[in-house]
Amino acid sequence: MPTSLPRSVVFPPLAPKVTSLLQSFMQALERETGMKMSFDDLTGSLEGFHADVESMQLDWEHQTHVCEFCQFAKSHPRGDLDCVLNKVVVNRLVMRRRTGLEGHCHLGLFDMAEPLIYRDRVMGVFYYGSVRVQGRDAIARKKIRNYSKRRKLSPDGYLETLASVPVIEESSIARHREALRTVARMANFLCEAAGVQSEAYRSRELKYPYLDPQILPYVVKETMKYITAHIDEWFTVKDIATHLRCHPDFLSRRFKQHTGVDLSIYLQQTRVDRAKRLLSNPKIDIGTAADMSGFSDRVHFSKVFRRVTGMTPSQFQREAKNNFAPRLQSQVAKPAKKREG
Hints:
Blueprint: H1 21-33, E1 36-41, H2 68-74, H3 79-97, E2 101-104, E3 110-118, E4 121-133, H4 137-151, H5 156-162, E5 167-168, H6 173-194, H7 218-229, H8 237-244, H9 248-259, H10 263-279, H11 286-292, H12 298-309, H13 313-330
Parallel strand pairs: 4-5
Antiparallel strand pairs: 1-4, 2-3, 3-4
């Protein structure tokens, strides 16, 4: 078995999963408009809250910009980093304003952004667009030339690829904005229906650069994607290496080199972290949390959970319930004050 990955290797696709309700809705809008929609989970690209809600689980293509133009831009030196920086800036603006916005990216594509606000917290940002707007091509071309000059690149390839980007009419923007708001409202409803405990998730740091799977080596990114997609199944590092057609030692070494964490520890911690988030949800029992975290043996689950957290699953569940109850009480809307006189 090879210990390195030749450039020509194409990894097999992940095992097909049932498309979630949220993704089905997003895909329906994409088919109708030709625009691209994605969701940037601010609690984690691969291990965020959306991965714990069956009706909100998304494939990789709906967690990042994947249009042909974006992929071309990311293939150039610093392209990935510049795209991540642009998204960081937009996410910070949306979080501060707590409302949607629209505009052109650093390379001229038009995008709209809308926050998912759940229990008074911005949990993520929906993006909709990756298109040109009729009558605004001069703006896109100017941005491309400015960027190319700054990065000492030829603008020709960008301008040529730009010509193939779908075009929308300016008069349709308001309608698309309303569709995006509807998606955000639907996501909020799905969070409520699933009983998501927002306090159980930490926000990803929005500073540059943050650890974003987009800018990790392909083999590391694919490993994280595999773990996330199959977290409810039992598998080992060897199984991941078999899927990626490389040696387990090579995979472990490469993973630690770029993340600073042993792959086996990362896998175990990812399972326990998911179990902790699920146990914080009063609608999920211990057995279900174990199954959804890839532990088919409840005894083994309790043993690993206690070793990692210092308490049993039932103890953690009781503590989580006691900790979150007061916070939820404080989030209940207060009755309006009576007018004087």
